[in-house]
Design a protein that fits this description.
It is a single chain. The chain has about 240 residues and is α+β, with helices and mostly antiparallel strands. The chain has two domains: about 5-70, Arc Repressor Mutant, subunit A; about 75-230, 3-Layer(aba) Sandwich (Chorismate lyase), CATH 3.40.1410.10. It has eight helices and ten strands. It has helices at about 5-20, 30-40, 40-55, 85-90, 110-115, 155-160, 160-165, 185-190, and strands spanning about 60, 65-70, 75, 95-105, 120-130, 135-145, 175-185, 200-210, 215-225, 230. The strands form three sheets. Strands 4-5-6-9-8-7 form a six-stranded antiparallel beta sheet. A hairpin with a 4-residue loop joins β8 and β9.
């Protein structure tokens, strides 16, 4: 069976992106230029571009055009509980954590609701951006109940908090409930992330529990859209 024209165009462009002929963050030719190059209709070109977008090869930015994504994005397991340090070290790329906020505070109304506590509870509030290859690509807003985490330092939050909690405090971190959405950037996102023109961020809200089912942490991780691939293994139940 003969391939459709838009599939042929899709495969040619996808191959060029995969083999590096078309570099990440470069702009694709306009629809009109592609129509002329491939001697086809605008509808065919749009079908090919939509397929590229759906499969993570390009990002369409309203009013600016289509841009090549880095197909070597970081795999982020939805079901796993992994730290940024663990993901970063697997890539072999230079990384660092930049701490913007680090303090003990009374839980405000929103955090009381997230953690199921009253306003008299003290929480550690930690705001950090995660930099990879010189770009700030994650903004983490962490809230830990102080009754479970009595002590933290800036050195700890610049490294891996989980490593400290498990190794030094002996906490048994067991499971998390996660909520994932795609949102427009906030003022903090624009200030603390290198968005590079992307008008949406992937937000992962984590409610993290200890082995005895105590909820001790709420985290909001805000990810630059083009840098992560969220993966999951699913099994059909019979």
């Amino acid at each position: 069976m003969r391939e459709s024209k838009y599939t042929q165009i899709y495969e040619e462009l996808a191959s060029k992106i995969q083999n590096g002929q078309m570099k990440p963050n470069t702009k694709l030719p306009s629809e009109s230029e592609l129509v002329e190059k491939y001697e086809t209709s605008r509808e065919t070109i749009r079908k090919a571009l939509n397929l590229l977008s759906q499969n993570g090869y390009i990002q369409k930015i309203k009013g600016k055009g289509s841009f090549v994504l880095d197909v070597r994005r970081f795999d982020f397991p939805i079901s796993g509980l992994v730290s940024f340090k663990e993901i970063a070290e697997k890539t072999g790329k230079p990384w660092r954590t930049i701490v913007y906020e680090f303090e003990v505070a009374k839980a405000d109304d929103a955090i009381q609701q997230h953690l199921g506590v009253k306003g008299t509870e003290d929480v550690w509030k930690v705001t950090r951006s995660r930099e990879m290859d010189g770009e700030r690509i994650i903004l983490d807003k962490d809230y830990f109940l102080k009754k479970y985490v009595p002590h933290l330092t800036k050195d700890i939050v610049q490294g891996s908090i989980y490593e400290y909690l498990e190794r030094d405090l002996g906490l048994k971190i067991s499971f998390a409930k996660k909520e994932i959405s795609v949102d427009e950037p906030t003022e903090d996102d624009r200030a603390f992330l290198d968005l590079n023109g992307y008008e949406y961020v992937v937000v992962v809200k984590n409610y993290v529990y200890l082995e005895d089912a105590s909820l001790f942490q709420y985290t909001e991780s805000r990810h630059r859209l083009d840098k992560f691939r969220f993966i999951e293994f699913a099994r059909r139940r019979h």
